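ASSEMBLY PREDICTION REQUEST
Request ID: AP-0331
Submitted by: J.K., bench scientist
Number of chains: two
Total residues: 950
Priority: normal
Notes: Please return the full assembly, not individual chains.
Input sequences:
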Amino acid sequence: MAQASGGAARPVLEVEGITKAFPGVVANDDVSLTLSQGEIHCLLGENGAGKSTLVNMVFGLYRPDRGTIKVRGEEVHFEDSGDAIARGIGMVHQHFQLIPVFTVAENIILGNEVTKGAFLDLDSARRQIDSLADRYGLAVDPDATVGDLSVGEQQRVELVKALFRDADILILDEPTAVLTPGEVDDFFGVVESLTGQGKSIIFITHKLREVLAVADRITVLRAGQVVGTATAEGATQQSLANLMVGRDVVFRVDKAEADPGAPVLRTQDLRVADDRGVETVTGFDVEVRAGEIFGIAGVEGNGQRELVEAICGMRPTAGGRVEMLGQETTDWSPRKINELGVAHVPENRSKHGVVAQYTIADNLVLNRYHHRKFSQRGVRNTGAINAEAQELVEQFDVRTPGVDAVIDTLSGGNQQKVIVARELTGDLKALVVAQPTRGLDVGSIEFIHRKIIELRDRGVAVLLVSAELDEILSLSDRIGVLYRGRLAGTVNAADATREELGLLMATGSSEGQR
Amino acid sequence: MTTVEHAVGATGASGRVGLNRQSITGLVFGLLGIALLAGVAPAISGTSRRFNFEPPPDPAGIGFHPPTWVVAIGVLFLLTAVLGFAPPEARRWASPARLLSALAVIPLLLVLSLALSDNPSTNIVNLFNESLVLATPLALGATTGLWCERSGIINIGIEGTMLAGAGIGYMTYATIGDAQSTGWLWFSILISVLAGGLVAALLAVLSIRFGVNQIVGGVVINLFALGLTGFLRSEVIVKTGITTGVGTSEFGLPLLSEIPVIGDQLFRGKPIYWMMYLVVIGTWLVMFRTPWGLRVRSCGENPHAAETLGVNVVRIRYQSVILGGLIAGLAGAWFSMESQTRFEDNMTNAAGFIALAALIFGKWTPWGAFGGALLFGFSRALGTRLQFLGVEVSGFEIPSEFLQALPFIVTLVVVAGAVGRSIPPAAAGQPFQRSK
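STATUS: Completed
Returned structure:
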C-alpha cells in the first residue's frame, strides 16, 4: 500500500511464470505480466507470438501447464470461462463471439440470464442494457438482430456483454482490426471512458500506431516469450517493431516512380450481387494500366469480395462489363481469364487459395497442371511437378520440410507464400490480389510486398484490395475508395492522407457528413 | 469507343433474367391456373356436391357447384402468377397471394376429388380430425428433431427412436400386463418414453462424446432399432401369443366437446393425441421463454460463443438430445398402444423421416413444425379418403397407390414455393470440441 502513491499501481491481475505447450510448440514460455487498476496494458507481438494463448488462459478457455494467475492478489484456477467471468474478467474476442440470429439483448444475457420466475425477463434485461449503454457511451439497440448490425455496432454489443457481467478487467483481442479509421477514434474514446471509470484493460494488437496512442504500458511477446516491457513515453514505432520481430525492420517499401503504360484491366458500370442476391457492387468503373498498382481501400463488406470474384470469373456479374487486354471477359470462366495472363491471389486463403489436403507441389501447379509440361495424355508428370515446386519453394522462401508435405501443415504465412509463388509465376499481364498479407507477420509481409512491386516494375497491372490502409498507402500508385459498391473517389497515392481516405471510407465523401 | 458504350448498354439492360424462386412459383401457379380454367372446369361434372359437417343421418353441410369453385381458385392462381412478375411496387402483394394460393390447394383437392367421385358428399370436419390424429406422431417426431437440431445435433435417427419406443413399450405391455390392464398400459407407455430416451442417449454419446458423423450415427440408430424390435417381436412378443389388447381410450374435453355439430368430432381424442399439443406448447415455452431454452438455441447456432459465456455446451447437447428422444418414445407409444394395440415390424413406416420434412418445412420452429406435421397428416388422411370415394377420370379408376401419393406431391410442390427457403441452425451437424 505504501508504494501505491499517486493512485496508480494496485495490481488487479498478476500472471507469473505461465507456460503452455501445444503438441509441437511452446506457445507461452515463462510469461509474466501485471495489470494495474485503471491501466491500459498493450500486448504486442507478431502472429503466433502467443498473445491469444496467454489471454485465453486468463479468460479460462485454456489451462496453463505451469505458473500462476492471481486476480486482486488471490490465486485462481479457472475451469472454464464461467469461472473467469465470475471473477470480473471479460473478453472481447478478435472474431466476435456473437449469435447472428439472436437479438442484442439475447446475446448479452446468454449464460447470465435475467429471469422472472422460470422465464426470461427481457424487459428488465432491456432496462439494464440501456443503463449500461448510457453510462459508458455504448449505443446499442437491445431489440436489433445482431446479424443486421455493422461490425462497429457488434463490437459495442461485445463490450456491453462484458460489462453486463460486471467485468472490471477487460481483455480486447485485436479490437481495431475490423474498424474504419473513424470508428477506431470512437473506439479509443470508449476505452478512455472505461478506464476513467476504473476498468483495467489488456489490449492486444500488432498495430504500432495504436499502441503508442492508447497504451500506458506495453509488453512485447516473441515466440512465446516476453522480450521486453516499455512505457508508452519511452517507446517508438521503430523500437517496438524491432523488439517484435527480433531484427531491424524496414517500414518503407522501396519503390521507383510508376511508369504506367496501356490500360490492361477495365470495368464499366460493373454490378455484382452477393450470395443473398443483394447487389453489393453497384456500378463500379476502374481502369488499371500496365506497370501501376491500383489500390482499393474500403471498410470490409462494401463489395470488395464480390468485385474481385466477378473480375476473376468466380461469380456471375449482374450487369456491366469487364475488359482485359482489350477483350471483353465478362463472365468468362476463371481458367479462361487465368490463361490470358491474369493471376488472382484470393482473399480467402483456405477456401479459394489452396486445396488444404493436397501437397505443396500439387498446390503449386493448380493453375497449370493441365499444361504439356506437367501432364501428357491425361497422366501427371510427377517428376516435372516436383522439380518446378522445388524451384518455387526456394525462390519464394517457403519454409517447409519438403514439397510433398500436405499444405495444411504449414503456417498461414507459408501457405500464402505458396499461393503467391503459384500465381506470380508465368507470363503475367495483370494481377488481382486481395488482402495479400492478412494475418501474416512482419517478415512475410515485407517479402510479399517486394514481390508485388517487382511485378509492377516488370509492367504488370496490379489491382490491390486491402483492408489495411497502411498496405494500400505504401504499395499503391493510385488509390480508389470503395464505398457501398462503387468508387467514392480516386486519389494519387503521393497526395493521399490517412485522414482523407478515412473520411472517404467512412462516409463515401471527402467532405464528410457524419 | 462508341461501339463499346453501346455493347455495355445492351448487356446491362437485356441480359441475365435470372429465374428466381418467386418467378418459378409464379410460373407454376400460372400454368395450374390456366389448366384449371381451360381444362378442368369445363370437363368436370356440373352436378352439385356437398361438404358435410357431421356423420349421417341428416348431416349439416353446404352444397356447392364444383366448376364454380374450380374457376374461382383458377383465377386466384392466375392472379398470383401475374403478381409474381409485377413491377416492384406491386410486389408486396405477391407474398400473401402465394400463401393464399398455397392454402387454396387444400379446398381444390377436396372439390376435385368429390367432383370426380360417384359419392355426392363427404364429411370434412371428420377429415380434419383425422388429419390432426395422423399428425400426432409427425408433430412429436418433428419436436424431437427440433430439440436435437436446435442444440446442434442432426438427428435422422428419429425413425429408429420411435420404432424402439413402439416395440419395447408394447413388449412390456404384452409380457408384464397381458395387454389388458389400463394401469400396465400407462406403465408401458412410460417404458416407451424411456426407451426413446435411451436410444437417443446412444446417438448423443456417439455424436458428442466420440464425434461420429451425425448422419452416420442416425443411420446406425435406424438399423439398430429395426433389427432389435424385429428380434424382440419374433422372440418375445409372438411367443406370448398376445396379438392385440386394450389401447388408450378416447375422452372429450369438458365444455368444448359439447359444442353442437363439431364439438364431438373435434374435441374427443385419445391421451397421446392430447399430449402432443402439450408437448408442442411446452416446447415453444421452454425453448423460447426460458434461460435453458436460450442456451439450447445458442449451442445450435454458435457453440463457441456459448462456451465463452460459460455455457456448458456438451451438457446442454446431451440434455436436448435425450429430451428429444423421450418425445420420440412417446410418438412410438402412439403407434403400438394408441393408434393400434399391437406391434408390427417397421411399424413407424418412415414417419420419422416425414417428421424431419415437417421440421424443415416449419423452419425449425415449434408451430411451424406442427403446421408441417398437420399438412402431412392431412395428405395422408385425404389419400385414404380418396380411396373410399373412388376417383374416376373418364371412366378409368385411378389406382389407390397413386391416390395415396397424390396429395403429398401436390402439397409439397405448391407449398414449397410459398414457404420458401428455410435456414437450419448454423451449427447443426458440427461436432463441438471444448478448448483445452
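REVIEWER COMMENTS: Chain B has two domains: 20-115, 125-388+399-419.
SIGN-OFF: pending second reviewer
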